[in-house]
Write a structure and sequence with these properties.
Oligomer: single chain
Mean pLDDT: 95
Structural class: mainly beta
Number of strands: 10
Shape: globular
Order of helices and strands: EEEEEEEEEE
Strand order of the largest sheet: 2-10-9-4-5-6
Low-confidence stretches: none
Distance between the termini: 40 Å
Length: about 110
C-alpha cells in the first residue's frame, strides 16, 4: 500500500508560481511512473504531468511550457513547479501512480485568483 501526501498549494495571483511536493512511501518508488493529477469543481480528475522512472516527462497541452514535473528517488518525492498560473489552473492537485492509481491522498488546493 502506497501512502501519498501532497503539499505546497495555496492562493496565488494570475501569473504567479507555486511548487507542489508529494511524499510517497514504498520501496518500489524509484521504479514507478508517477503523475500529478488535478480536479476542478464539477469536473473530472485529469492528468497534468507524468514522469517515468527514467526521468522522461510528458505534459497535458494546457500546462506544457508552464509546469515542470520532477522527482527525487532518494527522497521518494515528486514535485510540480507551476509558473504563469492561470485562473483555470484552480483545482485540487494530487499525485499518484500513472498506472492503476489508487490510495489517493487528500490533495492540495491551488487557487489562482486576483
Amino acid at each position: 500500500q502506497v501512502q501519498l501526501v501532497e503539499s505546497g498549494g495555496g492562493l496565488v495571483q494570475p501569473g504567479g508560481s507555486l511548487r507542489l511536493s508529494c511524499a510517497a512511501s514504498g520501496s518500489m518508488f524509484r521504479l514507478t511512473a508517477m503523475a500529478w493529477y488535478r480536479q476542478a469543481p464539477g469536473k473530472q480528475r485529469e492528468v497534468v504531468a507524468t514522469i517515468n522512472s527514467d526521468g522522461s516527462t510528458n505534459y497535458a497541452d494546457s500546462v506544457r511550457g508552464r509546469f515542470t514535473i520532477s522527482r527525487d528517488n532518494a527522497k521518494n518525492m515528486v514535485y510540480l513547479q507551476m509558473n504563469s498560473l492561470k485562473p483555470e489552473d484552480t483545482a485540487v492537485y494530487y499525485c499518484n501512480k500513472v498506472f492503476r492509481p489508487s490510495d489517493w491522498g487528500q490533495g492540495t488546493q491551488v487557487t489562482v485568483s486576483s
